[in-house]
Amino acid sequence: AGVTVIGTAADPQRISLPVGRPVTFILKSADVVHSFFVPHLLVKRDTVPGRVNELTVTFDAQGTYAGQCGEFCGLLHADMRFEIDAVSEPAFESWLASQPGASPPAASQPAASQSASAP
After folding, report:
1. Which of 45, 85, 102, 113 can bridge 55 by disulfide, Cβ–Cβ 3.0-4.6 Å?
2. How far apart are the first and last CA of the chain?
3. C-alpha to C-alpha distance for 33 and 112, rounded to whole angstroms
């Protein structure tokens, strides 16, 4: 959908995703190896500089899910946190419409393709 979510240690990344629809994260790192980790998903996906990695997931229940970098990556590693809000379809569409650069997802594609870059 063309959305990039950016955060800082003081203001962690937060993203809304629709329940019941697959979402593909496009994972990149500009500096060192990081790892996209959401304990609820029981999967960890590395980000390696110069490479693009993808992870497709479907949330089956509404809620807020904590995430963090799962690979020791430097002095600010402990501050690399984010949250995912799994929400209803109308709430997701409202959130998506409020995001700069967002375009409506095509019906035949996953609900959103989010770029999650490590800080």
Report:
1. 45
2. 21
3. 24
